[in-house]
Structures are given as structure tokens and as C-alpha cells.
From TrEMBL, chain A:
GO terms for biological process: chemotaxis. Gene3D superfamilies: CheC-like. Keywords: Chemotaxis, Hydrolase. It holds the Pfam family CheC. It comes from the Archaea. One of its GO terms (molecular function) is hydrolase activity. Residues 95-129, 301-337 form the CheC-like protein domain. This is Chemotaxis protein CheC.
From TrEMBL, chain B:
Gene3D superfamilies: 3.30.1330.200. It comes from the Archaea. CDD domains: CheD. Keywords: Chemotaxis, Hydrolase. The keyword Aminoacyl-tRNA synthetase does not apply. Its EC number is 3.5.1.44. GO terms for molecular function: protein-glutamine glutaminase activity. It is an enzyme of class 3 (hydrolase). GO terms for biological process: chemotaxis. This is Probable chemoreceptor glutamine deamidase CheD. It comes from Halorubrum ezzemoulense DSM 17463. The lineage of its organism: Archaea, Methanobacteriati, Methanobacteriota, Stenosarchaea group, Halobacteria. Probably deamidates glutamine residues to glutamate on methyl-accepting chemotaxis receptors (MCPs), playing an important role in chemotaxis.
Length: 396, 191
């Protein structure tokens, strides 16, 4: 089974349309303007997804599908953010169930209409079923048994109030994957200039799963290296491989000031890696690494410390890839950045966008216990080089 | 209608469009444009045009460049957030013109024209195009240079700019046509 990553891009755009319809419906219902900030496709095993939903309560709706797509689709809100959102509704708690059902139905309807158009086949949708679920129970039937699902996540932001949350769409994996494979040609035509007719962007599905695990391993290595250098206990909070429109990445990093390091990767795949801390976290980590308190929180001493830390984290990250992919990857010296988060990452996105519109983003949140520090690692590999390396991975 | 919905569903079935889902027109006109009449967010590789009092905003400019075009007499304004200098000849420029400076400015002028602006009365304000990193061979300055060339060819004067250096910027285009540029440290100025 091969997945064309450009077809995945087309799927992502369909998911984004669904999310925009959901945002519009929520805006009408709550009187609060909402915009879709980012939509990404996670390629994850059922086990990974179960882990990432562990300890979370979700509410949402599920619909059964017949026709052009068979299976089940689910739209879920985190219960905590859903409460905040629904508190805006007139009618209070009694509205919750019907509002969630309506919003879910609209979002899934938009999502599935896009698919039906794409396929040229009607998709029948059963009436929406409201649910409240603990942990991985939110996932569609069969997601945990198979070797993976695609999870579409859209982050919505209120433009005037401090409210942001995510919605998730989980098309059933089997038929959905068949579609991605079957629709390779039209997706490639729509996917952008980089296809060029010759470069393959189809990769074995199993390799994507492997790479997703690899991303986790790289994150764990990076966290271990922080622990080694700072003596602080660290853990990986979230680590996922996602496929996103590159233009959405800066919005995801956000407009808060960040400090950290960026690296250029050379080899197979090449690309960029950015390690970004919010300012207070950067200062706290640098402080923990330095023998004495620095004169200024993010001055030269802190910069040197963060560069040194970035070096070992990046090595930890890419060593794992190179081992599994059987390729050689090196990284440039660190370049220190300290500015609006989105601005620091925009040149990396621009450079990659010369060749591709969508990219694999490995985003990892590493938390340092005790000092309340957190950093996000964005790995942005060249799509075609990654596809080639993943393809080789499945060679006998 | 491409799918059927049971009668047992909620009262208001969703409005839907039947546009081609792959070539999403939202990418061309700015996805959030219709969401908020008071404040329109312009994402990376997007543009938006308004003929009312809405404030157009775009955030996190690094090497990207923001081009604000205004026809004061017609009260029509537009904002572009372009990522790369040259889209001409690229196939993606057709589906996403606002990703590039040249095709983006062309689209923006076209959109303003459609909204009632006179292209001969337009004036431009430019922000961004920073050289954030040594790693990424001067994409910011190349963006700024391309903006100058394209606006010059279109006969649109640049009346103010805040470009270059190694500093991120967030901008908002007010209804009076001034572009407010804010840096990471919170310092703001209207150009």
C-alpha cells in the first residue's frame, strides 16, 4: 500500500474546508468570530493515537458512511474547550447536546461533501450520534485494531476573545487509505509544481508509520539530551508526525516572542529544524545550564547555552532518523533566533515552499519539570527526499 | 447535492458549495475574509480586499512581505502576505497566486479593481522582508526587491515602507489607509 503525499495534501484541503464550515457555524451559534488557524493530517498508529488521547475527555458526534466512502467519521472537541465554547451559547447546558450535534453535523457534512466531489460519488451519511467519550474511546471503530488511521486536526481561534481549541476528524482508515492510494494521479496534478512528472511522492503506508515512530524516538532522544545537559527532569508531552500546508506553520508557532535555535539539515532528507522556547522557558533553561545567573535573561551567555543545547538536541533528533532510514544526515551550526515565533520560522517555510506546498512537520513538545519550561521542535524535511528515503526503507 | 442527509438530522442542514474541492478558492482570496467583518486576518500566502471599515491584519512577518494597497478616494483597501519573490511560470501560482510577490500583487490589484478601486489611484505601503536568518539566502531582501519591481511596473507608488533588518513584524491596515507595524518588543509605528 502506497500513499501519495500529494493526495494527502488534497485530503487535507478537504478537511480544512470542513473545518471552515464548522467555524462558520460556531461563529453563528456563539456570536464569537472564529477562524481556522491550521489544519493538519496526522499519520499515526492506533496505539499512538490512543496514547495522545489518554486522559482526555471528548465530546462530539459520529456518523456512519455509505456509498463513495464506507466507514465512520467522528468529530470531537476536547471536553474542556467545548465547555468554554458552549458557555457562550444562550440556553446554557441544555443547549450543549444539540449545539454539538449541529456543529458536528455541519463540519462532517462539509468535509464529506468535499470528498464526494473529489470522488464523483455520493456519500450517504447516517444521522449524527452524540457521544461523550473517555480517552481513546473517541476513535472510530476499528482504528485501534488496524495499523493506523489518519487524523485531521484543525485549530480554531477566536479573533476577538482568548479562546482556541481543536476539532478532530477521523475518517475510517481502511477505505480512506484506499482512496488516497487510488486517487494518486488527480491529486498529483492538483498538488503543485514540484511533482514535475518524474519525482515520486508515493510512499509505503507502513513506512509512514515507521517514520512516525521515529519522530517519537527522536523527540525522546532530544529530551534525554536536555536532561543530560541541564540536570533537569524532562519528558516528551506530545510528539506527532503531521502533514500540513506549509503556509499554516507560522500561524501554528504563533505571535508570542520565542527564543531558540534553527538548523539546516543536509543529507537525505535535507530540510530544517527549529527548536523554539517561549521567552520565559528559554531564560529558565539557560539559567539552569549556566554556572551563575546571567546578567540579562536572554543575553550572550544564554544565547551560547541555548545554542549548545540546540546542538545536542538536534543531534539526538536526527541520529535516530539516519539510523532507521540508513542515510547520512548532518546539520549546520546553530543559528540563534529571538523574535516573534511565526517570524523566526517564516524564512524556513519560504525556502521549503520553493519546492513544495505541503510538508511533513514533526512537532514535539518537550517539558522540563520543576522549572516550568517547555519547548517546541519543528522538523521540516524536504518532502521528496523524505519520500525517497521512506521508499528505500521498505526495500527488502 | 452530493450526499444524502437523514430526515432525523438537526434542523438546519449545512449550506454547502459545490466548488472544486482541490483548487480551493479560499486560498486565493484569504480564508478568513468572510468570517469577521470587523477584523480580517490574512494568512501566509493569502490576500484580502475590503471596501468597508474592516481592519486587515497579518501577523508574524519574517522574510515574508506584506503589501498594502489603498485607493483612498474609493475607500477600497487590500493586503497581501507573500512568501516568495517570483511565481510567474510556476503552476502553483495559478491556484495560489498570493504565495508569490509578483502574482500576488497582480491578484491584489485585480481584486481592488473589482471592488471599485481605480488602479491608477493606488498607493502602496510595504512591510516585512526581514533577513531573519543567515541560513536562508536573503529571501527577505529578494522579496522586497521584487515588490519594488512589480509595483514600479504597475505604476503604483510606494509611499512608505518598513522593511529589512532582522526583525519580525505584525501589521494591520487601518480604515484610514495607514499601515501600523508592530515589532516583537511591542513597539508600534504607523506608516
Amino acid at each position: 500500500m502506497r500513499v501519495d503525499v500529494r493526495a494527502l495534501g488534497a485530503c487535507n484541503r478537504l478537511a480544512e474546508r470542513g473545518a471552515k464550515q464548522a467555524a462558520g457555524a460556531l461563529s453563528d451559534l456563539t456570536g464569537t468570530d472564529l477562524a481556522v488557524e491550521v489544519t493538519g493530517a496526522s499519520v499515526a498508529s492506533g496505539e499512538d493515537l490512543a496514547e495522545s488521547f489518554a486522559g482526555r475527555e471528548s465530546i462530539g458526534v459520529s456518523v456512519g458512511l455509505r456509498g463513495g466512502l464506507d466507514g465512520e467519521a467522528v468529530l470531537a472537541f476536547d471536553a474542556v474547550t467545548a465547555d468554554a465554547l458552549l458557555s457562550l451559547l444562550p440556553g446554557g447546558q441544555s443547549m450543549e447536546r444539540s449545539a454539538v450535534t449541529e456543529v458536528g453535523n455541519i463540519a462532517l457534512g462539509g468535509f464529506l461533501d468535499g470528498w464526494a466531489n473529489y470522488l464523483g460519488k455520493a456519500i450517504d451519511m447516517s444521522p449524527p450520534r452524540y457521544f461523550e467519550a473517555d480517552g481513546a474511546a473517541v476513535l472510530p471503530d476499528g482504528a485501534l485494531a488496524g495499523d493506523g488511521v489518519f487524523l485531521f486536526e484543525s485549530r480554531l481561534d477566536a479573533t476577538t476573545t482568548d479562546l482556541d481549541f481543536s476539532i478532530y476528524m477521523l475518517p475510517d482508515s481502511g477505505p480512506f487509505r484506499d482512496l488516497i492510494v487510488g486517487k494518486t494521479a488527480p491529486a498529483a496534478a492538483a498538488g503543485g509544481e514540484a511533482a514535475g512528472g518524474t519525482a515520486s511522492t508515493a510512499v509505503p503506508y507502513e513506512s509512514l508509520s515507521t517514520f512516525s515512530s521515529l519522530a517519537k524516538k527522536g523527540s525522546a532522544n532530544a529530551a534525554d539530551n536536555i536532561a543530560m545537559m541541564t540536570g533537569l527532569e524532562t519528558s516528551v508531552d506530545v510528539s506527532r508526525l503531521r502533514f500540513v500546508p506549509l503556509a499554516d506553520v507560522p500561524a501554528e508557532v504563533g505571535t508570542e516572542p520565542h527564543a531558540g535555535t534553527v538548523f539546516e539539515l543536509q543529507g537525505e532528507p535535507s530540510g530544517y529544524l527549529a527548536i523554539l522556547f517561549e521567552e520565559s522557558s528559554a531564560a529558565a533553561v539557560a539559567d539552569a545550564m549556566l554556572p551563575m545567573e546571567p546578567d540579562e535573561p536572554l543575553g550572550d551567555m544564554a544565547e551560547n547555552a541555548l545554542c549548545e543545547l540546540g546542538n545536542v538536541m538536534t543531534s539526538g533528533f536526527i541520529d535516530g532518523w539516519a539510523n532507521v532510514l540508513g542515510t547520512s544526515i548532518t546539520h549546520s551550526p546553530p543559528e540563534f533566533v529571538h523574535d516573534i515565533g511565526a517570524s523566526t520560522i517564516s524564512p524556513l517555510v519560504a525556502k521549503l515552499s520553493e519546492r513544495q506546498d505541503y510538508g511533513f512537520v514533526i512537532d514535539t513538545a518537550i517539558e522540563t519539570e520543576g522549572i516550568q519550561a517547555r519547548c517546541d521542535v519543528y522538523a521540516l524535511p524536504d518532502e521528496r527526499e523524505l519520500a525517497r528515503a521512506l521508499d528505500h526503507l521498505s526495500d527488502p | 447535492m452530493t450526499r444524502s442527509l437523514s430526515d432525523d438530522g438537526p434542523d438546519d442542514p449545512p449550506e454547502r458549495t459545490e466548488s472544486d474541492a482541490v483548487a480551493d478558492p479560499a486560498a486565493v482570496t484569504g480564508g478568513a475574509a468572510s468570517d469577521d467583518p470587523g477584523r480580517i486576518k490574512v494568512g501566509v500566502g493569502e490576500l484580502a480586499v475590503t471596501a468597508d471599515d474592516a481592519i486587515l491584519t497579518t501577523s508574524g512577518l519574517g522574510s515574508c512581505v506584506a503589501v498594502a494597497l489603498v485607493d483612498r478616494r474609493a475607500g477600497v483597501r487590500g493586503l497581501l502576505h507573500a512568501m516568495l519573490p517570483a511565481g510567474e511560470g510556476r503552476t502553483t501560482a495559478a491556484s495560489r497566486p498570493a504565495k508569490y510577490v509578483d502574482t500576488g500583487i497582480d491578484s491584489l490589484i485585480g481584486g481592488l479593481d473589482d471592488a471599485g478601486a481605480d488602479p491608477r489611484r493606488l498607493e502602496a505601503r510595504v512591510a516585512g522582508g526581514a533577513e531573519m536568518l543567515d541560513l536562508t539566502d536573503a529571501v527577505g531582501p529578494r522579496n522586497v526587491e521584487r515588490v519594488g519591481e512589480v509595483l514600479d511596473a504597475a505604476g503604483v507608488p510606494i509611499v512608505a515602507s518598513d522593511v529589512g533588518d532582522a526583525v519580525g513584524r505584525t501589521v494591520r491596515l487601518r480604515s484610514d489607509g495607514r499601515l501600523v507595524v508592530r515589532a516583537a518588543d511591542g513597539f508600534e509605528r504607523a506608516i
